[in-house]
Write a structure and sequence with these properties.
The protein contains ten helices and twelve strands. It has about 290 residues and is α/β, with parallel strands linked by helices. It has one domain: Glycoside hydrolase/deacetylase (TIM Barrel, Alpha-Beta Barrel). The strands form three sheets. Strands 1, 2, 3, 10 and 11 form a five-stranded parallel β-sheet that branches. Strands 4-5-7-6-12 form a five-stranded mixed β-sheet, with helices on one face. A two-stranded antiparallel sheet has the order 8-9. Helix 1 links the parallel strand 1 and strand 2. Helix 4 runs parallel beside helix 5. It is globular and about 50 Å long. The chain starts with 5 loop residues before the first strand and ends with a strand. About 45% of the residues are buried.
Length: about 290
Amino acid sequence: MTRKIQNALTIDVEDYFQVAALAEAVDRDDWSSMEYRVEANTDRLLALFDEHQTKATFFTLGWVAARSPALIRRIRDAGHEIASHGYSHQLIYTQTPEVFREETRKSKTVLEDITGNAVTGYRAASYSITSKSRWALDILCEEGFTWDSSIFPVHHDRYGMPGTPHEPYLLQTPNGGTLTEFPLSTCPIGQYRLPIAGGGYFRLFPYGISRWGLGKINKAGQPFIFYLHPWEIDTEQPRLKVKAFSRFRHYNNLDKCMGRLERLLGDFRFGSVSDVLAGTAISTDAVAV
């Protein structure tokens, strides 16, 4: 059954120095002077996906797109979906609605100008649409987005909306608009939901746990959504001086990630978010979050 269900493969296109866990070591004003590695790492992923004849959704940071428009065109020309990851990778609940709207609109415009295609999907930096930033969902609707993948239905120190649905659903925004939400995947273990969607969880857990948890979602008849960052396959990236926990989160098992990703592509069937949503039965009853 795991090979029959199509799952969503997603890449959050950002560089290592833009990650929230490393913010203590890098000032945003210094981004342009940092060693720039996202292009080469994203190209490695494009080559891997081409080898496996697999399409993905690339949630692309507007800052990266503005600096590397040719990279964005390579992603488009390879047949992948391009969606927005905001502009400056700031936590939404630290922004005002006015700043969030401005950055969201700016990122959408940059991506659409480069690709010539409408951008209708969104993912928040560090999944930072939480109970403190529900208002962002209304702004996404008003700015022309039709689907979102920002809500992680777990407890976490930086993100999470526990108690929200675990499968794709029609979301009702606070002002009554609607978005199709593809929440980040979790696997039930009794009353607990294990975050299993990728990223640090994919690097830190043994591969067997990821394969088991994702397979369990498919065996229940549901697609899962998987995410990764280009910097997670980059063993040569600079080591920044951060606290021990942040260092563990960011750097652990970078050397294992590419091999695990290759195994994952062989073990499961993948496509873009829009392709997976098109083949998924979603209730027309909107859920308020």
